[in-house]
Amino acid sequence: MSLKYTPRALFLLLFLLSFFLQAHNTLAGEKITVKEILSNPNKYDGQEVTIPGKATKIKPRTSKKGNDYTTFTLNDESGKGMNIFTRGHPLITEGQKVTVTGIYQKVKRVGRHTVHNEVKAWNINR
């Protein structure tokens, strides 16, 4: 069985794909501040963000299942702070300037706990 696409269907498919890739890259490629996110949280909810700032309140932990994770606050130059969650124990120190990339969540529920304004980070650059 072979699939045949009309030129019009292919054009529409390519157009939609390029539109979604452009929209993703607009947020993901640009560095934004904590203040910007907190000023318009609905715009960034569920989106990939890249945020520079200083790491504070660093808490390396291990879950009941034995999984390492770390939480910390990322403060931008305005003094605003964002909760950061990442797997493992990154080599960062109190007050160190870092750039965090991950998915921003306006509200996150974990069991009985609710966390507001958190980035689940997969990349932390020192």
Task: Explain this structure.
- The chain contains three helices and five strands; from the N terminus they run αααβββββ.
- By secondary structure, it is of the alpha+beta class.
- Mean pLDDT is 87; it is low at 22-26.
- A five-stranded mixed β-barrel has the order 1-2-3-5-4.
- The chain has a single domain (31-125), classed as OB fold (Dihydrolipoamide Acetyltransferase, E2P) (Beta Barrel), CATH 2.40.50.140.
- It is globular, with a radius of gyration of 18 Å.
Primary descriptors:
globular, 126 residues, alpha+beta, OB fold (Dihydrolipoamide Acetyltransferase, E2P), single chain, five-stranded mixed beta barrel, 26% helix
Number of helices, counting only DSSP H or I runs of 4 residues or more: 3
Please identify the structural class as seen in this structure: alpha+beta
The main pleated sheet reads as: 5 strands, mixed, barrel
Question: How would you classify the quaternary structure?
Answer: single chain
CATH H-level homologous superfamily name: Nucleic acid-binding proteins
Overall outline? globular
Per DSSP E runs of 2 or more residues, the count of β-strands stands at: 5
CATH architecture: Beta Barrel
In total, how many domains does the architecture comprise?
A: 1
CATH topology: OB fold (Dihydrolipoamide Acetyltransferase, E2P)
Mean pLDDT: 87
Query: What is the CATH C level class, in words?
Result: Mainly Beta
Strand line-up in the sheet with most strands: 1-2-3-5-4
- State the share of residues found in helices, binned by percent: 25-40%
Q: What portion of the residues fall into strands of 2 or more residues?
A: over 45%
Radius of gyration: 18 Å
Q: Measure the end-to-end span.
A: 51 Å
Question: Low-confidence spans: pLDDT under 50, at least 5 residues?
Answer: 22-26
Order of helices and strands: HHHEEEEE
